[in-house]
Design a protein that fits this description.
The structure is a homodimer. Chain A has five helices and eleven strands, in the order αβββαβαββββαβαββ. By secondary structure, chain A is an alpha/beta fold. Chain A has a single domain, classed as Rossmann fold. β5 of chain A pairs antiparallel with β3 of chain B, so a sheet runs across the interface. Chains A, B: InterPro entries: PRTase-like, PRTase_dom, Pur/Pyrimidine_PRTase, Xanthine_PRibTrfase.
Protein backbone atom coordinates (compact mmCIF):
# COMPACT_ATOMS: atom_id res chain seq x y z
CA UNK A 1 0.00 0.00 0.00
CA UNK A 2 1.85 2.98 -1.40
CA UNK A 3 0.28 5.63 0.88
CA UNK A 4 1.30 3.63 3.95
CA UNK A 5 4.87 3.00 2.74
CA UNK A 6 5.28 6.71 2.03
CA UNK A 7 4.02 7.54 5.50
CA UNK A 8 6.40 5.07 7.13
CA UNK A 9 9.31 6.59 5.20
CA UNK A 10 8.21 10.10 6.16
CA UNK A 11 7.28 9.65 9.84
CA UNK A 12 8.68 6.27 10.90
CA UNK A 13 11.91 6.02 12.91
CA UNK A 14 14.29 3.10 12.96
CA UNK A 15 15.75 2.45 16.41
CA UNK A 16 18.37 -0.04 17.48
CA UNK A 17 17.14 -3.50 18.44
CA UNK A 18 15.02 -3.79 15.28
CA UNK A 19 12.43 -1.34 16.60
CA UNK A 20 10.42 0.60 14.02
CA UNK A 21 8.67 3.49 15.72
CA UNK A 22 5.48 4.53 13.98
CA UNK A 23 3.93 6.02 17.09
CA UNK A 24 3.12 9.38 15.50
CA UNK A 25 0.42 7.88 13.25
CA UNK A 26 -0.20 4.20 14.02
CA UNK A 27 0.05 3.04 17.60
CA UNK A 28 0.17 5.91 20.09
CA UNK A 29 -1.09 8.90 18.14
CA UNK A 30 -3.48 7.52 15.51
CA UNK A 31 -4.19 9.13 12.13
CA UNK A 32 -7.83 8.21 11.59
CA UNK A 33 -7.84 9.37 7.97
CA UNK A 34 -4.99 6.92 7.26
CA UNK A 35 -6.87 4.24 9.21
CA UNK A 36 -9.81 4.70 6.86
CA UNK A 37 -7.56 4.13 3.85
CA UNK A 38 -6.21 1.03 5.59
CA UNK A 39 -9.74 -0.18 6.28
CA UNK A 40 -10.75 0.30 2.65
CA UNK A 41 -7.70 -1.65 1.51
CA UNK A 42 -8.51 -4.56 3.85
CA UNK A 43 -12.06 -4.55 2.50
CA UNK A 44 -10.76 -4.61 -1.08
CA UNK A 45 -8.51 -7.58 -0.26
CA UNK A 46 -11.05 -9.58 1.76
CA UNK A 47 -14.26 -8.52 -0.02
CA UNK A 48 -15.20 -12.07 -1.04
CA UNK A 49 -14.85 -13.76 2.33
CA UNK A 50 -18.20 -12.99 4.03
CA UNK A 51 -16.43 -11.77 7.14
CA UNK A 52 -18.91 -11.35 10.02
CA UNK A 53 -16.51 -10.55 12.85
CA UNK A 54 -13.18 -8.81 13.30
CA UNK A 55 -10.83 -9.98 16.04
CA UNK A 56 -7.89 -8.00 17.33
CA UNK A 57 -5.83 -7.75 20.50
CA UNK A 58 -5.48 -4.85 22.87
CA UNK A 59 -4.30 -2.20 22.73
CA UNK A 60 -2.88 -0.90 19.46
CA UNK A 61 -4.91 -3.15 17.16
CA UNK A 62 -8.25 -1.82 18.42
CA UNK A 63 -8.36 1.48 16.56
CA UNK A 64 -7.47 -0.04 13.19
CA UNK A 65 -9.93 -2.89 13.76
CA UNK A 66 -12.81 -0.53 14.62
CA UNK A 67 -12.28 1.72 11.60
CA UNK A 68 -11.87 -1.33 9.34
CA UNK A 69 -15.06 -2.90 10.73
CA UNK A 70 -17.09 -0.06 9.23
CA UNK A 71 -16.27 -1.43 5.77
CA UNK A 72 -17.39 -4.95 6.72
CA UNK A 73 -20.47 -3.94 8.77
CA UNK A 74 -19.23 -6.27 11.48
CA UNK A 75 -18.60 -6.02 15.21
CA UNK A 76 -15.08 -6.08 16.63
CA UNK A 77 -13.94 -8.32 19.46
CA UNK A 78 -10.65 -7.56 21.13
CA UNK A 79 -8.70 -10.21 23.00
CA UNK A 80 -7.71 -9.05 26.47
CA UNK A 81 -4.35 -9.43 28.15
CA UNK A 82 -4.71 -10.98 31.63
CA UNK A 83 -7.80 -11.76 33.64
CA UNK A 84 -10.16 -8.97 34.67
CA UNK A 85 -12.90 -9.17 37.28
CA UNK A 86 -15.28 -8.04 34.54
CA UNK A 87 -14.67 -11.20 32.48
CA UNK A 88 -16.75 -14.27 33.25
CA UNK A 89 -14.94 -17.53 33.85
CA UNK A 90 -16.15 -18.79 30.47
CA UNK A 91 -13.26 -17.70 28.27
CA UNK A 92 -11.00 -19.07 25.57
CA UNK A 93 -7.42 -18.42 26.60
CA UNK A 94 -3.90 -18.76 25.30
CA UNK A 95 -0.43 -17.49 26.16
CA UNK A 96 1.35 -14.91 24.02
CA UNK A 97 4.94 -13.74 24.27
CA UNK A 98 5.34 -10.04 23.48
CA UNK A 99 8.34 -8.99 21.39
CA UNK A 100 7.91 -5.40 22.53
CA UNK A 101 7.49 -5.96 26.24
CA UNK A 102 9.64 -9.10 26.63
CA UNK A 103 7.05 -10.91 28.70
CA UNK A 104 4.33 -13.53 28.45
CA UNK A 105 0.64 -12.66 28.70
CA UNK A 106 -2.48 -14.70 29.23
CA UNK A 107 -4.82 -13.61 26.46
CA UNK A 108 -8.54 -14.27 26.68
CA UNK A 109 -11.77 -13.90 24.75
CA UNK A 110 -15.15 -14.51 26.30
CA UNK A 111 -16.80 -17.63 24.85
CA UNK A 112 -19.92 -15.53 24.26
CA UNK A 113 -18.19 -13.63 21.45
CA UNK A 114 -16.66 -16.39 19.33
CA UNK A 115 -18.97 -19.01 17.86
CA UNK A 116 -18.64 -21.87 15.35
CA UNK A 117 -20.49 -19.90 12.66
CA UNK A 118 -18.11 -16.94 12.88
CA UNK A 119 -16.01 -16.09 9.82
CA UNK A 120 -13.25 -14.05 11.38
CA UNK A 121 -10.85 -11.48 9.99
CA UNK A 122 -7.94 -10.96 12.39
CA UNK A 123 -6.50 -7.43 12.34
CA UNK A 124 -3.35 -6.16 14.03
CA UNK A 125 -0.90 -3.30 13.63
CA UNK A 126 2.37 -5.27 13.65
CA UNK A 127 3.64 -8.71 12.78
CA UNK A 128 7.11 -9.63 14.03
CA UNK A 129 7.64 -13.13 15.46
CA UNK A 130 3.98 -14.07 14.98
CA UNK A 131 3.31 -15.13 18.58
CA UNK A 132 0.34 -12.79 18.99
CA UNK A 133 -1.22 -13.92 15.70
CA UNK A 134 -0.66 -17.60 16.43
CA UNK A 135 -2.43 -17.06 19.75
CA UNK A 136 -5.38 -15.30 18.12
CA UNK A 137 -5.69 -18.07 15.50
CA UNK A 138 -5.73 -20.60 18.34
CA UNK A 139 -8.50 -18.67 20.13
CA UNK A 140 -10.65 -18.62 16.97
CA UNK A 141 -10.10 -22.32 16.29
CA UNK A 142 -10.83 -23.19 19.96
CA UNK A 143 -14.29 -21.75 19.34
CA UNK A 144 -14.77 -23.84 16.20
CA UNK A 145 -14.87 -20.59 14.21
CA UNK A 146 -13.03 -19.98 10.93
CA UNK A 147 -10.09 -17.64 10.35
CA UNK A 148 -10.92 -16.28 6.90
CA UNK A 149 -7.88 -14.05 6.78
CA UNK A 150 -5.42 -11.86 8.60
CA UNK A 151 -4.80 -8.20 7.85
CA UNK A 152 -1.59 -6.65 9.17
CA UNK A 153 -0.52 -3.04 8.75
CA UNK A 154 3.27 -3.47 9.09
CA UNK A 155 5.08 -6.79 8.81
CA UNK A 156 8.73 -7.10 9.73
CA UNK A 157 9.69 -9.35 6.83
CA UNK A 158 13.11 -10.06 8.29
CA UNK A 159 11.56 -11.84 11.29
CA UNK A 160 9.95 -15.25 10.98
CA UNK A 161 6.35 -14.44 11.91
CA UNK A 162 5.07 -14.10 8.35
CA UNK A 163 6.51 -17.47 7.35
CA UNK A 164 5.14 -19.10 10.52
CA UNK A 165 1.60 -17.83 9.99
CA UNK A 166 1.49 -18.48 6.21
CA UNK A 167 2.64 -22.06 6.90
CA UNK A 168 -0.52 -22.51 9.00
CA UNK A 169 -2.62 -22.26 5.83
CA UNK A 170 -4.09 -18.86 6.61
CA UNK A 171 -4.30 -16.02 4.11
CA UNK A 172 -2.14 -13.28 5.59
CA UNK A 173 -1.95 -9.87 3.91
CA UNK A 174 0.39 -7.16 5.17
CA UNK A 175 -0.04 -3.67 3.76
CA UNK A 176 3.67 -2.91 4.17
CA UNK A 177 6.44 -5.50 4.54
CA UNK A 178 9.75 -4.18 5.80
CA UNK A 179 12.53 -6.40 4.48
CA UNK A 180 15.40 -4.46 5.97
CA UNK A 181 16.02 -1.43 8.11
CA UNK A 182 19.10 0.25 9.48
CA UNK A 183 19.24 2.21 12.73
CA UNK A 184 22.51 3.88 11.71
CA UNK A 185 21.27 5.66 8.59
CA UNK A 186 17.51 5.31 9.23
CA UNK A 187 16.92 3.52 5.92
CA UNK A 188 13.89 1.25 5.40
CA UNK A 189 13.56 -1.23 2.52
CA UNK A 190 10.12 -2.54 1.59
CA UNK A 191 9.31 -5.80 -0.16
CA UNK A 192 7.72 -5.22 -3.58
CA UNK B 1 -28.93 9.22 24.80
CA UNK B 2 -32.04 7.10 24.39
CA UNK B 3 -30.58 4.52 21.99
CA UNK B 4 -27.74 3.83 24.42
CA UNK B 5 -30.00 3.55 27.47
CA UNK B 6 -32.23 1.11 25.59
CA UNK B 7 -29.20 -0.95 24.64
CA UNK B 8 -27.93 -1.02 28.23
CA UNK B 9 -31.35 -2.18 29.43
CA UNK B 10 -31.49 -4.84 26.70
CA UNK B 11 -27.93 -6.20 26.77
CA UNK B 12 -26.33 -4.92 29.99
CA UNK B 13 -26.01 -7.14 33.05
CA UNK B 14 -25.84 -6.01 36.64
CA UNK B 15 -23.41 -8.06 38.72
CA UNK B 16 -22.69 -7.90 42.43
CA UNK B 17 -20.03 -5.42 43.53
CA UNK B 18 -21.54 -2.59 41.48
CA UNK B 19 -20.34 -4.10 38.21
CA UNK B 20 -22.34 -3.26 35.08
CA UNK B 21 -21.34 -5.62 32.30
CA UNK B 22 -21.78 -4.13 28.85
CA UNK B 23 -19.18 -6.33 27.24
CA UNK B 24 -21.43 -7.57 24.44
CA UNK B 25 -21.50 -4.15 22.74
CA UNK B 26 -19.16 -1.67 24.44
CA UNK B 27 -15.89 -2.95 25.87
CA UNK B 28 -15.07 -6.48 24.72
CA UNK B 29 -17.29 -7.05 21.71
CA UNK B 30 -17.85 -3.63 20.14
CA UNK B 31 -20.92 -2.60 18.12
CA UNK B 32 -19.42 -0.19 15.61
CA UNK B 33 -22.81 1.02 14.38
CA UNK B 34 -23.65 2.06 17.96
CA UNK B 35 -20.19 3.65 18.27
CA UNK B 36 -21.01 5.81 15.25
CA UNK B 37 -24.20 7.02 16.92
CA UNK B 38 -22.15 7.76 20.05
CA UNK B 39 -19.58 9.65 17.98
CA UNK B 40 -22.30 11.75 16.31
CA UNK B 41 -23.75 12.60 19.71
CA UNK B 42 -20.35 13.71 21.07
CA UNK B 43 -19.92 15.86 17.95
CA UNK B 44 -23.36 17.41 18.49
CA UNK B 45 -22.49 18.22 22.12
CA UNK B 46 -18.96 19.52 21.51
CA UNK B 47 -19.44 21.02 18.03
CA UNK B 48 -18.47 24.55 19.12
CA UNK B 49 -15.20 23.73 20.88
CA UNK B 50 -12.69 23.56 17.99
CA UNK B 51 -11.41 20.20 19.21
CA UNK B 52 -8.18 19.26 17.41
CA UNK B 53 -7.23 16.12 19.37
CA UNK B 54 -8.98 13.29 21.14
CA UNK B 55 -7.31 11.66 24.13
CA UNK B 56 -8.33 8.34 25.60
CA UNK B 57 -6.74 5.56 27.63
CA UNK B 58 -6.12 1.97 26.65
CA UNK B 59 -7.81 -0.32 26.10
CA UNK B 60 -11.57 0.02 26.02
CA UNK B 61 -11.66 3.74 25.26
CA UNK B 62 -9.74 3.39 22.00
CA UNK B 63 -12.50 2.10 19.75
CA UNK B 64 -15.01 4.75 20.80
CA UNK B 65 -12.36 7.47 20.51
CA UNK B 66 -11.36 6.41 16.98
CA UNK B 67 -14.92 6.27 15.67
CA UNK B 68 -15.73 9.59 17.37
CA UNK B 69 -12.60 11.21 15.89
CA UNK B 70 -14.08 10.81 12.40
CA UNK B 71 -16.69 13.43 13.30
CA UNK B 72 -14.03 15.88 14.54
CA UNK B 73 -11.45 15.20 11.79
CA UNK B 74 -8.87 14.87 14.52
CA UNK B 75 -6.21 12.34 15.48
CA UNK B 76 -6.55 10.20 18.59
CA UNK B 77 -3.86 9.77 21.22
CA UNK B 78 -4.23 6.98 23.71
CA UNK B 79 -2.51 7.06 27.09
CA UNK B 80 -0.58 3.87 27.78
CA UNK B 81 -0.53 1.87 30.97
CA UNK B 82 3.06 1.17 32.12
CA UNK B 83 6.35 1.81 30.39
CA UNK B 84 7.12 0.14 27.08
CA UNK B 85 10.52 -0.10 25.41
CA UNK B 86 8.89 1.57 22.40
CA UNK B 87 8.20 4.78 24.36
CA UNK B 88 10.91 7.40 24.51
CA UNK B 89 11.91 8.76 27.92
CA UNK B 90 10.19 12.01 27.06
CA UNK B 91 6.71 11.32 28.44
CA UNK B 92 4.09 12.94 30.63
CA UNK B 93 3.12 10.47 33.32
CA UNK B 94 0.67 10.07 36.17
CA UNK B 95 -0.62 7.28 38.39
CA UNK B 96 -4.15 5.93 38.05
CA UNK B 97 -5.96 3.50 40.34
CA UNK B 98 -8.25 1.13 38.45
CA UNK B 99 -11.66 0.37 39.96
CA UNK B 100 -11.98 -2.70 37.73
CA UNK B 101 -8.57 -4.23 38.29
CA UNK B 102 -7.93 -3.05 41.87
CA UNK B 103 -4.41 -1.87 41.13
CA UNK B 104 -2.40 1.24 40.37
CA UNK B 105 -0.95 1.93 36.94
CA UNK B 106 1.63 4.34 35.64
CA UNK B 107 -0.03 6.04 32.69
CA UNK B 108 2.01 7.87 30.09
CA UNK B 109 1.69 9.97 26.95
CA UNK B 110 4.67 10.88 24.80
CA UNK B 111 5.43 14.60 25.01
CA UNK B 112 5.45 14.65 21.20
CA UNK B 113 1.70 14.17 21.09
CA UNK B 114 0.40 16.77 23.56
CA UNK B 115 1.25 20.43 22.92
CA UNK B 116 0.19 23.77 24.41
CA UNK B 117 -1.96 24.60 21.37
CA UNK B 118 -3.99 21.38 21.67
CA UNK B 119 -7.71 21.65 22.41
CA UNK B 120 -8.45 18.21 23.73
CA UNK B 121 -11.63 16.17 24.02
CA UNK B 122 -11.14 13.29 26.45
CA UNK B 123 -13.20 10.20 25.64
CA UNK B 124 -13.70 7.08 27.74
CA UNK B 125 -16.22 4.26 28.04
CA UNK B 126 -16.82 4.38 31.82
CA UNK B 127 -16.72 6.88 34.66
CA UNK B 128 -16.85 5.46 38.18
CA UNK B 129 -14.53 6.98 40.81
CA UNK B 130 -12.97 9.38 38.31
CA UNK B 131 -9.34 8.38 38.90
CA UNK B 132 -8.65 7.63 35.24
CA UNK B 133 -10.19 10.92 34.09
CA UNK B 134 -8.39 12.96 36.74
CA UNK B 135 -5.15 11.40 35.52
CA UNK B 136 -5.89 12.19 31.88
CA UNK B 137 -6.77 15.80 32.77
CA UNK B 138 -3.46 16.05 34.62
CA UNK B 139 -1.57 14.74 31.56
CA UNK B 140 -3.22 17.34 29.30
CA UNK B 141 -2.55 20.18 31.72
CA UNK B 142 1.08 19.04 32.20
CA UNK B 143 1.51 19.71 28.49
CA UNK B 144 -0.01 23.18 28.79
CA UNK B 145 -2.86 22.01 26.57
CA UNK B 146 -6.56 22.66 27.19
CA UNK B 147 -9.23 20.14 28.16
CA UNK B 148 -12.21 21.42 26.19
CA UNK B 149 -14.49 18.68 27.38
CA UNK B 150 -14.95 15.09 28.41
CA UNK B 151 -17.28 12.62 26.75
CA UNK B 152 -18.19 9.47 28.67
CA UNK B 153 -20.43 6.68 27.45
CA UNK B 154 -21.61 5.30 30.81
CA UNK B 155 -21.32 7.16 34.12
CA UNK B 156 -22.03 5.41 37.39
CA UNK B 157 -23.90 8.30 39.00
CA UNK B 158 -23.91 6.65 42.41
CA UNK B 159 -20.11 6.85 42.61
CA UNK B 160 -18.32 10.13 43.18
CA UNK B 161 -16.33 10.45 39.94
CA UNK B 162 -18.80 12.71 38.16
CA UNK B 163 -18.90 15.16 41.07
CA UNK B 164 -15.09 15.09 41.38
CA UNK B 165 -14.50 15.86 37.70
CA UNK B 166 -17.26 18.49 37.39
CA UNK B 167 -15.78 20.26 40.45
CA UNK B 168 -12.54 20.65 38.46
CA UNK B 169 -14.29 23.08 36.14
CA UNK B 170 -14.36 20.77 33.13
CA UNK B 171 -17.42 20.20 30.97
CA UNK B 172 -18.25 16.53 31.41
CA UNK B 173 -21.03 14.93 29.39
CA UNK B 174 -22.08 11.33 29.94
CA UNK B 175 -24.43 9.75 27.41
CA UNK B 176 -25.99 7.51 30.07
CA UNK B 177 -25.86 8.09 33.82
CA UNK B 178 -26.81 5.11 35.96
CA UNK B 179 -28.19 6.37 39.26
CA UNK B 180 -29.00 2.97 40.72
CA UNK B 181 -28.71 -0.68 39.85
CA UNK B 182 -29.61 -3.87 41.59
CA UNK B 183 -27.83 -7.17 41.12
CA UNK B 184 -30.72 -9.12 42.67
CA UNK B 185 -33.41 -8.16 40.18
CA UNK B 186 -31.13 -6.77 37.43
CA UNK B 187 -32.83 -3.37 37.44
CA UNK B 188 -31.06 -0.24 36.18
CA UNK B 189 -32.27 3.33 36.87
CA UNK B 190 -31.01 6.16 34.66
CA UNK B 191 -30.79 9.83 35.57
CA UNK B 192 -33.11 11.94 33.43
Amino acid sequence: MKLLQERILKDGNVKSGNVLKVDSFLNHQMDIELFNEIGKEFKRIFADYNINKILTIEASGIGIACITAQYFNSPVVFAKKAQSINIDGAVYSTKIESFTHKKTYDVIVSKKFLNPEDRVLIIDDFLANGCALAGLIELVRSAGATVEGIGIVVEKGFQNGGELIRSMGVRLESLAIVDAMNADDGSITFRN
